[in-house]
TrEMBL record:
GO-annotated biological processes: amino acid transport
Protein name: Sugar-binding protein
Stored PROSITE patterns: SBP_BACTERIAL_3
Region (Disordered): 39-72
Low complexity: bias regions: 39-61
Gene3D superfamilies in the record: Periplasmic binding protein-like II (3.40.190.10)
Gene Ontology cellular-component terms listed: extracellular region; outer membrane-bounded periplasmic space
Taxonomic lineage from the root: Bacteria, Bacillati, Actinomycetota, Actinomycetes, Kitasatosporales
Record key words, sorted: Signal, Transport
InterPro entries: Bact_solute-bind_prot3, SBP_3_CS, Solute-binding_3/MltF_N
Lineage: superkingdom: Bacteria
Record bears the keyword Signal: yes
Listed SUPFAM superfamilies: Periplasmic binding protein-like II
Assigned protein family: Belongs to the bacterial solute-binding protein 3 family.
């Protein structure tokens, strides 16, 4: 793909409320072709995210049953008087800093405020920390944050490292490409192209599993991929369909192509030892989903996501393991 003129790129970046971040250091790793240059075709149907542990883990979305009794993690938050939440500040309509108000806004931000209200009685008693994609798990393991609400996919590898709430949204990996691009889907149209994805993301795992002949650029934050695409430095982006829809809304010169090629569930992530907090967050999610078309979940969906992710009529149903 050829680069755009400097004026066109600048206009595209100005059009995107969030695409103002400086592109951080990136890693490029080539993926060799199969013998004879052949590449496997894309799967016919969406599949669970790739990962070596997937065969040994049948239901990673199953979480602890909700309870509202205070345990050590909830008491820690109450004693502190604030919930510390790791979020994104660059994902339009999910977690982004509104340029007009300078406040963090989006679907994930509303969910965090609901947790703060339930635990502390005040939705504003939150300290938001912007956490890069590749630092989500370390931030929880080191106790830097209480929760991560950052379009984080629940999968079999991650549940060994962090605990998740029940699923609060469902999406899938999809390809974002410029309008008019020869890239048409997650298939052999990627051969010889350069693809960007966030380090530590499901997209990176999928591309390591099957690159379709593309070379892969990894960056700390998914927004960096949009900027790289705007600058003509990559040919396509692999990310969650939900995030990609927000990026397409930011920049009308790009579009989603093909269909989602995985099925994924987003969950609120917490430290493995904070079982009481997991149960409390699941209780919050029970209330958040309750109320049918007028539930807090549906109100947030219509406010933030319905314009770009049409056709959703209800939140995902929770799964519990005990």
């Amino acid at each position: 793909m050829g680069g755009r003129s400097g004026g066109a790129v600048a206009a595209a970046v100005r059009a995107a409320p969030c695409a103002v971040a400086v592109v951080a250091a990136a890693v490029l790793w080539p993926v060799p072709a199969d013998a004879g240059g052949a590449h496997r075709a894309a799967p016919a149907a969406a599949r669970p995210p790739a990962g070596p542990a997937s065969a040994a883990c049948a239901d990673p979305e199953a979480s602890l049953r909700p309870r509202t009794t205070d345990g050590p993690a909830v008491r820690r938050i109450k004693d502190r008087g604030r919930l510390i939440a790791g979020v994104d500040q660059n994902s339009y309509r999910w977690g982004y800093r509104d340029p007009a108000t300078r406040e963090l806004s989006g679907f994930d931000i509303d969910l965090v405020r609901a947790v703060a209200k339930a635990v502390l009685g005040d939705p504003d008693k939150v300290t938001f920390l912007a956490i890069p994609t590749n630092q989500r798990i370390p931030a929880l393991e080191k106790g830097k944050v209480d929760i991560i609400a950052r379009t984080m996919t629940i999968n079999c590898d991650r549940i060994k490292q962090v605990a998740f709430s029940t699923a609060y949204f469902e999406a899938g990996q999809q390809v974002l490409a410029p309008k008019g691009s020869p890239v048409t889907a997650f298939d052999d149209s990627l051969k010889g192209k350069k693809v960007c994805t966030a380090k530590g993301s499901t997209g990176e795992s999928e591309l390591r599993h099957e690159s379709h002949g593309a070379s892969v650029l990894t960056v700390p934050n998914q927004l960096d991929c949009l900027v790289r695409l705007q600058l003509g430095q990559v040919d396509a982006v692999i990310t969650d369909s939900a995030l990609a829809a927000g990026q397409a809304a930011q920049d009308p010169s790009v579009r989603l192509v093909g269909k989602p090629f995985t099925t994924e569930s987003y969950g609120v992530a917490m430290n493995l030892g904070d079982e009481d907090l997991v149960r409390r967050v699941n209780a919050v999610l029970e209330d958040y989903r309750r109320g049918g078309d007028d539930s807090p979940w549906m109100l947030a969906y219509r406010k933030w996501l319905a314009a770009d992710l049409k056709g959703i009529t209800a939140p995902p149903q929770p799964k519990y393991k005990d």
